[in-house]
Specification:
Strand content: under 5%
Largest sheet: none
CATH class: Mainly Alpha
CATH superfamily: Tetracycline Repressor, domain 2
Number of domains: 1
Number of strands: 0
CATH topology: Tetracycline Repressor, domain 2
Radius of gyration: 21 Å
Shape: elongated
């Protein structure tokens, strides 16, 4: 699941009040409400957050939340969908292609340590709701996590084409495993279990090296040579 990196700087619509008229007024009102919901959910948690607080933060009518989203739950689902739509682009921008497999995997594993730490308050909302609301879990898994898997798999396939990854490696399975480890280290170890962040980084660097060695093209050659040596003995 992961969700994602800190948002790039954007105009704060909520701070200026809810747009009342104009060609794009509806889209701007929805944007203001979603920006406000992100902040209110993160500050108070989903259960304690109210549509009134979101509307006040956005300087919009509370009735617009029900009109556009069908209520608080619909607002959260729309927010997750909207974040998922931008996530792949943000991840690609933050993780430009690297020349070596070791460098690529190191960045893929280390980036979530910062991005998930910055988004830890909102992640608490997403993870807790996903655990008890199947529809939220579906959106998190199908959209947010799947986008991360797509980006990672694309990078691994590029390295396979360059001869860095073994042909027998199941790229999609490895990408899914990496996203799970990202969530574990980026969110649970740091924000939930409150482990020392430097220690988490060191563990994560080691895990990245282990994964790189396990899928590298020369891994098969090394294993074959080792097996051959054992047979000779």
């Amino acid at each position: 699941m992961i969700i994602h990196a800190a948002e790039p700087h954007r105009h704060d619509l909520a701070a200026e009040g809810c747009p009342e008229r104009g060609k794009h007024a509806k889209a701007l009102r929805k944007r203001a409400l979603m920006e406000a919901a992100t902040a209110v959910f993160a500050e108070h948690g989903y259960d304690a957050a109210t549509t009134r607080a979101v509307a006040e933060r956005a300087a919009c009518s509370e009735g617009l939340i029900h009109r556009y989203f069908g209520g608080k739950r619909g607002l959260l689902l729309a927010l997750l969908d909207e974040k998922a739509d931008r996530f792949a682009e943000q991840m690609r921008a933050a993780l430009p292609d690297r020349a070596t497999l070791d460098e690529e995997l190191a960045r893929i594993f280390l980036w979530p340590l910062e991005s998930m730490w910055e988004q830890r308050a909102f992640l608490r909302v997403c993870v807790s709701r996903a655990a008890i609301d199947p529809e939220v879990g579906h959106v998190v898994g199908l959209h947010l996590n799947a986008r991360r898997v797509e980006v990672i798999a694309e990078k691994l396939r590029r390295h396979r084409a360059a001869g860095h990854v073994r042909d027998d490696v199941d790229i999609d399975a490895v990408a899914y495993a990496i996203t799970g480890m990202n969530l574990a280290s980026g969110f649970f170890l740091q924000a939930v279990f409150d482990l020392d962040r430097d220690e988490v980084r060191q563990m994560t660097e080691q895990i990245a090296r282990v994964v790189a060695r396990g899928i590298a093209a020369d891994c098969a050659e090394t294993a074959a040579a080792r097996d051959g040596g054992r047979k000779a003995d």
